Amino acid sequence: MRGTLLKRFARHRLWACLPWLFLLVLAPATAFSQAWPSRAITLVSPFPAGGITDLLSRIVAEELSKSLGQNVVVENRLGASGAVALTSVAKAPADGYTLVMGGSAPTAIVPALNRSVSYGPKDFEAIGYVAGLPIVLVVHPSVQGSNLKEFLDYVKAHQGSLNCAHHGVGSGNHLACLRFAKMIGVQMADVGYKGAPPLNIDLLANRVQLYFGTLPTQIQYVRAGQMKAIGMASPRRAPFAPEIPTLEEQGLKGLNLDSWNALYAPAGTPKAIIERLNSELNKILAKPEVRKRIEATGSTLNPGSPADLEKLTMEEHSLYRRIATEANIKME
How remote is the C-alpha of 39 from its chain's centroid? Predict the structure, then answer.
């Protein structure tokens, strides 16, 4: 009888202690999250200083430094279309002190096309969408047509004589050339360049005729009459240039090619830190002065949750993997 009572007493004490044991397990993680950040944070930018990704990184770093009470330092790690930076961040400690300004190209497209890249979207925790770069289809003024229908009639009547320019095999605008040609049912040559500056020189000289470029880069030529904008390859018109209709509203469905930048951390970063960063980021993007600075670059804002960004990243990754498989495109 005495033994039975002792066993019951022991079981009772065990159950009574379970809530405390649970709190003890959680205590280190909770304390860690509450103490964060206790030192400087590094925000890695995968592209050179002066570009749009670097500019956005510096705006976000400046504002996060204020809201978090710790310095957020931008570090440019260049190479392999952003893969050098993303690879290093994927391997960094998941403690909230290393972040990266990833996005459509380095986070989703590059690992979809380049099997030698050692990371994928699942090696990162999505924090939040920062800004989108609308893509516009521009053509040399000699290409006839002031809207999509007239332009398509011209393209179909001149098959084989028009070239679509891009930034190299596997780049987002290279895949745009391929998708566009397939969607409208024409054969079209594509010509690669090492970035927008040399490409625009040849487009202005009519050595190439079509280009899916970022709106901030191309709008100066459009407004100067040196190029024609056929339409935005984005889901909606850009506030920066509302006069340019989308390709979708003109009848070409499904060619939505926004380039975007977003904030990520290494996989395994505590959820409390991710949620704090997302909250601070969305507050930053809601500031009128910050919104004005970002929109002045031609970028668009669409703040959301970590889950929203994770969904976008995985969808983009799957889309480009499928496109690359269909077109037999591989990056090395």
Answer: 27
- Residue 204 main-chain phi, psi, to 5 deg: -65, -30
Q: Give the Cα separation of 314 and 43 in Å (integer).
A: 22
Residue 173, both tokens: 């605008």
CB 216 within 8 A of CB 240: yes
Measured at the alpha carbon of residue 204, what is the angle toward residues 198 and 207, in degrees to the nearest 5?
80
Please say whether the beta carbons of 90 and 266 come within 8 A: yes
116-143: per-residue pLDDT in tens? Answer: 899 999 999 999 999 988 899 999 999 9
Q: Give dist(CA 63, CA 281) in Å, integer.
A: 9
Q: Does 158 score more than 70 pLDDT?
A: yes
CA atoms within 13 A of residue 152's CA, in its CB half-sphere: 15
- Distance between CA 90 and CA 93 in Å, rounded? 8
